[in-house]
Amino acid sequence: MFDGIDRFSILGASDNPDVPGLGFRYDTDEHWATPNPTGREGVFEAYCPPHYRTMADAVDAFAHRKFGPGGPFHPDTPGAWTDTPGFRSSAQVHDETFKACVSLQAQYILDTFGKFPATVPTVFILNYVQAHHLDLDFYDRFFTPGAYLHTHATHMDTWHRREETPPPPVAPQSGGEGPPQPGPHQHLGSPAEQHHPRPAGNSTGYHGTRSRKRKSVPFRSGSRTN
Q1: pTM (2 decimals)?
Q2: For residue 79, which of 153, 147, 149, 148 has the smallest C-alpha distance?
Q3: N or C: more exposed end of the chain, with fewer CB within 10 A?
């Protein structure tokens, strides 16, 4: 997605004192295509030198941040799940062998390329848009009330009416009897009634309070051959 944002200038790596950005420190090297921001001291520091002496120190600090008090995988950290302590503590804690392996590889990358990671900036701004329908049953089961908004709960009924396939025309009976069939320039009812009929038993077209089913529409080519 193009957003017109100069990511390096926002972080503070524009090399222009009139454009300080967020004030992140950064390094440059003739072998790199771009400057490399690593963080702002005391505010946001990447897990790599110069904020840590070695990559082993950075790995230890990172593991403590994940599993230590206040971390996302510590059972005492509050959360919105129905079983927050159980969910948070279900992640496997990094043991010393695992951390030593990661530290060895990370230090090799740093020593070889002069920064970590090797081929992308250490700190980078990435804008994106995510659009999808929430699985409300999932949130109702695993989260406490309030995990989603009222607009999420009513979205499907508000914006996506249930569509049903209209019944085929009734064929005339033998002997010419039966209801008249529409000609090539006629239709039965209005276009809205043909393509969006109301489901029986409910004048609003809704079944229940929420509808999450999505109808699959087969692909049809716009061209044809004679």
Answers
A1: 0.66
A2: 147
A3: C
